[in-house]
Design goal:
This protein has four domains: about 5-225, no CATH class; about 230-525, no CATH class; about 530-575, no CATH class; about 580-665, Barwin-like endoglucanases, CATH 2.40.40. About 25% of the residues lie in helices and about 25% in strands. It is globular.
Length: about 675
């Protein structure tokens, strides 16, 4: 085999990356779905002939692991029948995909009679059929209600379109002329890559390019393994919850036990809830991707994206659980589940890499579809507004922006939306006090208000984190959760738990999307008072919040810090924190899906007695992230004690004689 020098390997790596970027540019410039051409909800990749990822340009990081997984499903189904001029399509979540609107198109690249590369383009189509316009419903109970579920199929054979298959697809989607344009855009992206890859092969030859591909993958694998080797062997667990599944008002637990063993990261999701009845489920490929994203965030944020980053990561996901759902479960809310899995893993790892973690982000893609008509033509406006990102050990979290879990997916431009749909944007502003308090504050959520101009319409919402808020770390506090409502004149209609399907809209209604804030980092009473004063001046924090949460008292001008009064207020707030002594109890009990904390029936916070079933969290100095519970009041429990089951005791790292802080996080929205 011909030798290849390191410089050429690096040139080839960057050339492959440039090709995947050019694919994305082609897809964005030619797509008909506005969520692709304006929102950039798409990803493109180049893989080798065996389906190993060489490079990927991901608008949405959650596409990373599902990309090679879907490609390998196509290879498996068409082994021996992948020929020059063929083009394939797939969107099935059970075959390595995400949710049905994310459609992948694949083209093989042959050189000198050999299958050398595979080019893949995945994009979010505005509609793929199903019960709800937009193909994402907060009330779906099986995948067939969500749209066209496509296994690997050929849409081109021998360079010619398979018209019968394409007609079948277009007959089962809304706004079919736009979807026809999306198909052409995906094909164009793949054709662009094919031309560039042939040029690359002509320049360096098949042997050198094949060797470069192996070295590119091996280099990434070796680097990630070296990072894991530099850390102590370690095992920890954490858990977090989804509000509910849209069908039952029961929260859904995700539990992760994370281990670093020599040069590998192992994550075991045993203990996670069974697959849900609603659309909040994901495939194993998505779960693997969530773990890889958590690993990238903490250990390798700047490294290249290829097969090598997967190899040191081991994931165990019991079949039939929320994170390895089986047919025919619905998967429209896959992003909400994956976001929660990412930060559950980060919560477990936070203790050993405190300078790499942040508070949990707003925690949802926040799918929002406003469906209307322009004359006889249906109109589907798809929004997915971002919220806050977590505070870090040295900075406040960004506000109203995509986080590392959601990548480059952008808000569509307001002008484009208003030109395409009968809606008008009324306001866009940060949600004051929504960021989780901390030494470094979590980013704020926002309010985005859209008025309906057509005579009637419908609203579909698939969201989460409207009840259980994003958590803080290392003493940082939880944020204000997501919120959804419709303003109709003087009436305010709340969308319960951020889930709706075909909610009727009238002309003049204002849909208010309210993504939440993110968790803080560090004790809010240690925040620089001057930073709090600046937050008040800029409208990010109210003066009352500054005083009662941060302990910062401002002078009469509302701008200058009263240093003496601030010192006194902070001393008072510290003394008022509700500290309890944890006591190890027996096995775990759950109330509406959330772990139970047994407390005295006399326990109170700031003079207010807690209610049975109230949502609280316990923060321990031995655990980076707090643990969430529902209170169960018990007259037999000492007023200074908190009875923890053995699993919760272990997650918080408690030892005899510890104290933990009790905080209420109920009714923050």
């Amino acid at each position: 085999m011909a030798g290849i020098d390191p410089i050429t390997v690096e040139v080839v790596r960057n050339r492959l990356r440039a090709i995947s970027r050019e694919m994305v540019i082609t897809l964005i410039k030619t797509a008909y779905s506005s969520v692709i051409y304006d929102g950039k909800d798409c990803s493109c990749a180049v893989l080798d002939g065996q389906g190993q990822l060489l490079t990927l340009d991901a608008g949405l990081p959650l596409h990373i692991a599902p990309m090679p997984s879907s490609v390998k499903e196509i290879i498996r189904d068409f082994q021996g029948n992948i020929l020059p001029g063929d083009i394939f399509m797939i969107n099935s979540p059970y075959r390595g995909g995400t949710h049905l609107p994310d459609v992948l198109v694949l083209e093989p690249v042959f050189y000198q009679g050999q299958l050398v590369f595979l080019c893949a383009a995945r994009g979010h189509w505005t509609d793929v059929g199903g019960a709800a316009p937009g193909s994402i419903s907060g009330k779906a109970t099986e995948i067939h209600q969500e749209g066209l579920n496509m296994p690997p199929i050929k849409i081109y054979e021998g360079g010619k379109p398979n018209e019968s298959v394409i007609k079948l697809i277009l007959s089962n989607v809304r706004v079919s002329e736009e979807r026809a344009g999306d198909i052409r855009a995906h094909v164009a992206a793949c054709k662009t890559a094919e031309r560039r890859l042939i040029e690359l092969l002509d320049k360096y030859g098949l042997e050198k390019i094949s060797e470069a591909g192996k070295q590119i993958i091996n280099a990434s694998e070796n680097y990630v393994r070296s990072v894991f080797r530099s850390l102590p062997n370690f095992t920890a667990s954490y858990e977090d919850y989804l509000d509910n599944d849209g069908i039952q008002d029961t929260s859904i637990r995700i539990k992760a036990t994370v281990s670093i063993k020599d040069d590998e990261l192992e994550v075991d999701f045993t203990g996670t809830a069974p697959q849900s009845q609603g659309p909040y489920n994901v495939s194993k490929a998505v779960t693997h991707g969530a773990v890889v994203i958590a690993s990238k965030i903490l250990f390798d944020p700047y490294g290249p994206m290829n097969e090598g980053i997967f190899r040191p990561v081991r994931v165990n996901v019991p079949e039939g659980t929320l994170l390895n759902a089986q047919y025919p479960s619905a998967t429209g809310g896959f992003g909400e589940v994956a976001y929660r899995a990412i930060f559950t893993v980060i919560g477990a790892l936070a203790q050993i890499v405190p300078e790499h973690v942040c508070g949990a982000d707003y925690g949802a893609i926040n799918h929002c579809y406003i469906t209307t008509k322009q004359g006889d033509r249906p109109s589907i406006f798809y929004a997915y507004p971002p919220g806050g990102n977590g505070g870090t050990y040295m900075t406040d979290g960004p506000s109203g922006l995509r986080g590392p879990s959601s990548g480059d997916v952008a808000l569509q431009s307001l002008e484009t939306v208003e030109a395409l749909h009968p809606v008008m944007f009324k306001s866009m502003k940060f949600r004051t006090d929504s960021g989780g308090p901390g030494k470094f504050r979590g980013g704020l959520g926002q309010y985005l208000s859209v008025q309906v101009l057509s005579d009637s319409g419908g609203l579909n919402v698939v969201s989460d984190r409207t009840y259980i808020p994003a958590f803080g770390v290392f003493g940082g506090c939880s944020a204000v959760p997501n919120e959804w409502k419709v303003l109709r004149g003087s009436e305010v209609h709340i969308i319960p738990r951020g889930k709706a399907v075909n909610y009727p809209l009238r002309k003049g209604d204002i849909v208010v999307m309210g993504p939440g804030g993110a968790g803080g980092y560090g004790d809010p009473l240690e925040r620089d008072p001057a930073m709090v004063a600046l937050d008040v001046e800029e409208g990010l924090v109210s003066q009352g919040h500054a005083e009662e949460v941060y302990g910062v008292v401002l002078q009469a001008d509302g701008l200058s810090v009263d240093r003496q009064a601030t010192d006194e207020k902070r001393s008072l707030l510290r003394s008022q924190r509700r500290m309890l002594r944890p006591v190890k109890g027996d096995g775990a009990d759950f109330d509406r899906g959330i772990r139970v904390l047994r407390t005295s029936d006399k326990v109170s916070i700031n003079g207010r007695q807690l209610a049975d079933g109230e949502l609280v969290e316990l923060a321990s100095s031995r655990s980076a992230a707090p643990l969430r519970f529902r209170v169960r009041r018990d007259s037999q429990v000492n007023a200074e004690q908190a009875i923890l089951d053995t699993e919760a005791w272990g997650i918080l790292g408690c030892v005899e004689g510890d104290s933990v802080e009790l905080r209420s996080i109920e009714q923050r929205s």
